[in-house]
Amino acid sequence: MVLIKRVPGKQQGLAFLWTVLALSAFMGLAAYGVDVSTWYTRKASMQSAADAAALAGAFTVGESGGSDWTSATVIAKQYVKRNGYNENDATYTSQADAISNWYRVQLHYKEATWFGGAIGRQAQDLYVTATAQFFAPADAGVDYQYLGVAPNRCTGIQVPYNFSSFGPQAQHAYGDNYGPLYMQNKDASGNWVLNPNHPPGWQGFDFDINIDPSYSTAMGTSQMEVELFDPDTYNSGGVLDASATTWDEIRSSQTGLPGALTNGADTTIYNLVWTSTAGVDTVIGTAQYDGNSWWADGNASKSSLGATSDSAFQGNMADATAAGTTAKGPSSGWVTPVAGYGLSRGTFTISDVTPYLSGGRLHVRVQNTAGASENGFSLRAGPPHPYVSTYGVSKMGDCEWNSKYSKKITVNGQDVSVAQIASHGVIPMNFDVNGTAVVTLGDVPTKAAGSQFNIARFDTDVAPPSGGMSMIYKVKLNNGTTVTFPTYSGTTPTTISAGGISIDMKPLTISDAVETDVVHLPASYPGGTWSVTYSAGGGDSSTWQLQYGGTGSFISLVGQTGRLY
Fold it and tell me: What's the whole-model pTM score?
């Protein structure tokens, strides 16, 4: 027999009450758990949006060389919005934690609760933060005493190349990966393919003017002039001239190209710019040179200044500008842009360099806004000196100028100028004659140890008539030693090594293509300055870019090393 003990009614009610309370608490916790789960899901979505925005911002400022923080925030806001959030609900911080290459996005979202209202919580404030870092492409330092003079009779060094920029209607295969608007091919619909390296708003090639703090003492003045060598693309008679022995190459566009030109001499604009650390540009001076006449306004002819054709000065450019009162035209020498002859606004003469020693970047942007040709040019900066005031043409030849104003200080064991010109990120160059050039590619710091970087070269394809096209990479390490790699002149990929560093080499003589050499650094790499000794034929135009980690800037989320985007 089973005996069942009846529970008193009072106790039955108490048990029921405890059950109801326990069940209510359990249901409340379960409901709260639903809210918490929603919050975690929301935060994961927010984190992805913040990560994308921070990375986009870091990439944008990195591609600008570390200066354009304003555009970084514009782009970051777009990524917040694309991911479904209000861009005004985020804060954007440039140089976060006072670290110059950090960009931060903090996103806020007010998430409504499902059941929190039962306990008086209608919404929950959620916050996420993402910080990204960038390593901008390295500057390519070029001492101007070795550029713009071929040959340099002061040193006996043959310098066969100059800076180079092509017009927007030029053929991509001419050797400029950035200036032309179009590629060499059409898409399936029969439209010319746009050049992805020439985006809307592209402002041309960029050249830093690095002023040493000792400038005023070394030069005896705080004033500085920025000079341009052969700033136009005018040839005698304005005729087509694409030979390898001319400073400028006047060319025609690709047949059938939109806006094709049969005589495509360029219009080139030079902007002298001060960019603050906040990314704000101040244009100090603007100069424009038209290819259809000697100067933009056509008020003078070359003959009026006693200048002859460009080709007459090939091999004699070291003293292209004459001493005394006789001046050569800017198609054969150095000029300081002046009113009426090139200068559109402002000035290329700085009265005091002191404000430009820190807090930003002084640089020259060079952009061909029209034409299909190659403008060969150069830049230098130093104290004011005699020139023909009417035209701004320097009276000081290269030998005299270099003797007075270059090699004034020693940096890392090398004599350099106190106002050094450095191609910012991309080196555009052209060989005017057959020869060999030693080109500084840039500094790769110690923090790159144990990783890799790339050297991207475009259109290195013209060999000298006698053969012998080659490259020799070299790095001057910060520990004082120099590592020289084996000569490479191949047409097939291979790997070369020296000093514990290996380089995966891509072929030479490949037309209209980017070939990327990948450099693998050991953990013991102490940092150093990289250069290449490049032998090529006259007419070889190419662009070179030293990059950390791939095309464009190397970016990653702070605290998540190894993540490349």
Answer: 0.69
